[in-house]
Amino acid sequence: MLIMIRPSGEIALKSPRSRRNFEYTLITNIRNIIGEGKLWRSQGLIFLEINNDNINDLAQKLSKIFGIASFSPVIVTEFSNLQDIIDRAKQIFSDIVRGKIFAVRAKRVGYHNFTSLEVQRKVGEALFPFSKGVDLENPEIEIFIEIRNNLAYFYHENFKGPKGLPVGIAGKTVVLFSGGIDSPVATWMMMKRGAIPIILNFNLGGNVHKELVVNELNVIKKWSGGHKIKVFIVKGTDVLIKLSQIDRGNRVVMLKRIMYRVAERLSERVSAKSITTGESLSQVSSQTMVNLYVTEYGIKFPIFRPLIGFDKEEIVEVARKIGTYEYSIKLPEYCAISTKARTSVELNEILQQEEKVNLDYDKILENSEFIEI
Ligand SMILES: Nc1ncnc2c1ncn2[C@@H]1O[C@H](COP(=O)(O)OP(=O)(O)OP(=O)(O)O)[C@@H](O)[C@H]1O
């Protein structure tokens, strides 16, 4: 089976050099996920030739590879004149249009002594006797013919890809991953823009919490373009004990600040250039603008919050689509940190209390558990 893969439109707009890099990364990711077959680039498209004839199985996998806009199983023919194309189209599609209202769509690249419109008309005429009729506006089935120089590609199925950019082209980001609904979605959105996530989780609920995080990451892994996901699990309860020394109203922001600090250290170690969180503005008390300002004060990496303008319903919709929602809702309440924070903490107060708590962030990281998914 031959599959024509159309990269995201955004990739085509890049300079030739970037475009080549993006396409090569996409090819590597496809190879890692599919694990067999031959892949090559041709005029802005990617082709995959594979022995497996199960398109549904393949479509499941390709539809989760970022950087793919759409894909179609195609039949390719070399031709020397329009009649060759008409004959081949008849062979391929007469059964497929049987009893259906159809339309032919043709595209052409290169020099030919016929137009795309002529191809549509002539192939339409040839298939008409087998069909229930033609309707260009509302067909039951569409027949596509893409002519590129002396090759014609025939297909009638078009599967959607997830668009975005191939995972890997943007470098690494350390994701503060709670296991709740939001941070898995934030991870997915960063992957969609080409970032490789390095996961940092503060375990606040023992094995139950860990298992949940691992389950979610197994789902997310399906979208990673074959990249392994590195996970650092910090024993969050040790940090919580330290927090008992400070004001109750400041604890949530302080815990977040500690998470950012450890994420900062991890970013240095793994050469990530940003930190990602699942925060969205004003969602809970720790996510007011003031509290976000205080939380990230002095952190040397940019903090990316891809969900900042999303409301909960929109986040849930994405979580359901990617498949993490069913796990996230099982996260016990004690693993979330967003209870009872002051909506507006004082920066100086927090900085003083941070000194008092005096944590060794490197040590916290060194004592973390590392797994790879
Ligand atoms: N235990 C944790 N380990 C790592 N990061 C965390 C943890 N708890 C929270 N975070 C980070 O802080 C963000 C905000 O968490 P918070 O609990 O305040 O809100 P939330 O909206 O419930 O987020 P989520 O749905 O991701 O748990 C999370 O999206 C995540 O990036």
Automatic annotation (TrEMBL):
EC number: 2.8.1.4
Keyword annotations of the record: ATP-binding, Cytoplasm, Nucleotide-binding, RNA-binding, Thiamine biosynthesis, Transferase, tRNA-binding
Gene Ontology terms describing biological process: thiamine biosynthetic process; thiamine diphosphate biosynthetic process; thiazole biosynthetic process; tRNA 4-thiouridine biosynthesis
Main localization (coarse): cytoplasm
Residues involved in ATP binding: L176, F177, N201, F202, K256, G278, Q287
Pathway recorded for this protein: Cofactor biosynthesis; thiamine diphosphate biosynthesis
GO annotation, cellular component aspect: cytosol
Keyword Repeat assigned: no
Keyword Cell membrane applies: no
Highest taxon, organism lineage: Archaea
PROSITE patterns noted in UniProt: THUMP (PS51165)
Enzyme class: transferase
Localization (cell): Cytoplasm
Domain THUMP: 56-158
UniProt-listed InterPro entries: Rossmann-like_a/b/a_fold, ThiI_AANH, ThiI_fer, ThiI_N, THUMP_dom, THUMP_ThiI, tRNA_STrfase, tRNA_sulfurtransferase_ThiI
Single GO MF descriptor: tRNA-uracil-4 sulfurtransferase activity
First and last residue of the signal peptide: none
Catalytic activity field: [ThiI sulfur-carrier protein]-S-sulfanyl-L-cysteine + a uridine in tRNA + 2 reduced [2Fe-2S]-[ferredoxin] + ATP + H(+) = [ThiI sulfur-carrier protein]-L-cysteine + a 4-thiouridine in tRNA + 2 oxidized [2Fe-2S]-[ferredoxin] + AMP + diphosphate; [ThiS sulfur-carrier protein]-C-terminal Gly-Gly-AMP + S-sulfanyl-L-cysteinyl-[cysteine desulfurase] + AH2 = [ThiS sulfur-carrier protein]-C-terminal-Gly-aminoethanethioate + L-cysteinyl-[cysteine desulfurase] + A + AMP + 2 H(+)
Function of the molecule: Catalyzes the ATP-dependent transfer of a sulfur to tRNA to produce 4-thiouridine in position 8 of tRNAs, which functions as a near-UV photosensor. Also catalyzes the transfer of sulfur to the sulfur carrier protein ThiS, forming ThiS-thiocarboxylate. This is a step in the synthesis of thiazole, in the thiamine biosynthesis pathway. The sulfur is donated as persulfide by IscS.
Stated family: Belongs to the ThiI family.
PANTHER family hit by this protein: TRNA SULFURTRANSFERASE
Protein name per UniProt: Probable tRNA sulfurtransferase
